[in-house]
């Protein structure tokens, strides 16, 4: 059976109990089901009304609900859609869902199925679907704004424009090939097109050269606290998190594993990672903690290398100097006095902090916010937000390069390179050969969306 001939339903408003629960239906049976649930006058499309919901089996009243009817294709899914805004008690919702289950060709929705139908009905492209998923998951204001731009089509529109340019260029080349004996097709058309395509290639390369800002904003900057044992890393983490995330004791080597906490710094997402203290004389378990610490540090955007006056200084591992991460020196426990020895490496920032007296904490927070703004602050142009976008764009550039540089080769081969390049852009928005991607993209959606 074609699943889009079935009507689906689910709670779309989150966990119960709640003040209001929204139950959504989508599909061809939505209108007939609503007529049997409410009796009386059918609501006007896109206008809310208060109605009693009647049990179709025994005729009892299920609830008093606010009803919204959206006639397709003017709905989120592009199908006839109903929203029942019921009271959010578990018994009420269970009774309404039980009533819906009695109708034929009607079943509970799967994860992301409403959005998947919106995609299949051309209400959203895949970049907009991904933007919607990011909007639901957004934890900071910057993530929300980026997701909103993508859901509104900024990224998909850009890629569609580029694809249209490639398709139009290929059509002009084929026209010159097919109608070369016609007077109205100048011989220089193809030459002019390749100049324009070289400019397009440069635009895509510039788009790729974004230091992964969009992806980093989506996942959050990784900031790793690193340094010798008892340098105050865990105390600092608890202070920044404003709760007891890590155990703090005078005993060296208390932190054995990697601890993470998600922070919102000035609207930007930051994952702060506390790690085992770096030292030579460590036991087997502690050595594993140190290994994990270095693995996280090598992938970090920022390393906070900590020192304390009462702790023997350790050398920053050489591998981290080559990792590409920015490194700051934090002189912790500054209330105990100055630090005698420093590492020899150069650092971007050096900040004195004291958790006990809260000295330097505002400076550290301000510096972290500035670092986030520099690295993942939103810019005017749409940003790449996923690795799959980057992969297809990179392949598009390779196909374009091959066509541009193949001067003297048969025009049919160069036209084929343009077709491949255009197809790579089409796969990003989901209009070409993406069925194998859909399960992956929709599996993380919640039921009811």
Q: Main beta sheet: strand number and arrangement?
A: 6 strands, mixed
Strand order of the largest sheet: 3-4-5-2-1-6
Overall pLDDT level = 87
What fraction of the residues are assigned to beta strands by DSSP?
Answer: 15-25%
What is the helical fraction, as a range of percent? 40-55%
Overall outline: flat
Query: Helix-strand pattern, N to C?
Result: EEHEEEHEHHHHHHEHEEHEHEEHHHH
Second-tier CATH architecture of the largest domain:
3-Layer(aba) Sandwich
Radius of gyration: 29 Å
Question: How would you classify the quaternary structure?
Answer: single chain
Weakly predicted, low-confidence segments: none
GO biological process, one term: tRNA methylation
Keywords: Cytoplasm, GTP-binding, Hydrolase, Magnesium, Metal-binding, Nucleotide-binding, Potassium, tRNA processing
Subcellular location: Cytoplasm
Pfam families: MMR_HSR1, MnmE_helical, TrmE_N
């Amino acid at each position: 059976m074609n699943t889009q001939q079935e009507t689906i339903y689910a709670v779309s408003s989150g966990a119960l109990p709640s003040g209001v629960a929204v139950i959504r239906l989508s599909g061809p049976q939505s209108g007939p089901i609503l007529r049997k649930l409410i009796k009386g006058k059918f609501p006007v499309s896109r206008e809310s009304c208060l109605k009693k919901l009647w049990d179709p089996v025994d005729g009892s009243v299920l609830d008093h609900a606010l009803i919204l009817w959206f006639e397709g294709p003017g709905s989120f899914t592009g199908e006839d859609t109903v929203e029942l805004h019921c009271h959010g008690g578990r018994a009420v919702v269970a009774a309404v869902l039980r009533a819906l289950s009695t109708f034929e060709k009607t079943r509970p929705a799967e994860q992301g199925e409403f959005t998947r139908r919106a995609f299949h009905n051309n209400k959203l492209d895949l970049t907009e679907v991904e933007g919607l998923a990011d909007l639901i998951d957004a934890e900071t204001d910057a993530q929300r704004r980026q997701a909103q731009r993508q859901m509104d089509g900024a990224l998909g529109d850009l890629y569609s424009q580029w694809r249209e340019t490639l398709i139009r260029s290929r059509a002009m080349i084929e026209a010159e090939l097919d109608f070369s004996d016609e007077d109205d097709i100048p011989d220089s058309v193809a030459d002019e097109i390749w100049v324009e395509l070289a400019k397009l290639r440069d635009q895509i390369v510039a788009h790729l050269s974004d230091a992964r800002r969009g992806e980093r904003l989506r996942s959050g900057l990784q900031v790793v606290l690193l340094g010798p044992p008892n340098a105050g890393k865990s105390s600092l983490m608890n202070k920044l998190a404003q709760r007891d995330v890590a155990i703090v004791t005078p005993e060296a080597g208390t932190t054995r594993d990697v601890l993470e906490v998600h922070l919102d710094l000035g609207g930007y997402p930051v994952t702060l990672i506390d790690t085992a203290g770096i030292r030579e004389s460590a036991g087997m378990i502690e050595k594993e903690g140190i290994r994990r610490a270095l693995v996280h540090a090598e992938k970090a955007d920022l390393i906070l290398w900590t020192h304390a006056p009462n702790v023997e200084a350790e050398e920053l591992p050489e591998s981290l100097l080559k990792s590409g991460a920015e490194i700051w020196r934090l002189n912790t426990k500054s209330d105990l006095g100055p630090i005698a020895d420093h590492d020899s490496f150069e650092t971007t920032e050096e900040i004195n902090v004291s958790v006990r007296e809260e000295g330097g904490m505002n400076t550290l927070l301000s510096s972290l916010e500035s670092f986030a703004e520099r690295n993942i602050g939103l810019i005017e142009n749409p940003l790449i937000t996923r690795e799959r976008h980057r992969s297809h764009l990179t392949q598009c550039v390779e196909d374009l390069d091959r066509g541009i540089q193949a001067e003297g080769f048969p025009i049919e081969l160069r036209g084929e390179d343009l077709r491949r390049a255009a197809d790579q852009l089409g796969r990003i928005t989901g209009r070409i050969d993406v069925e194998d991607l859909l399960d992956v993209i929709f599996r993380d959606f919640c039921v009811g969306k």
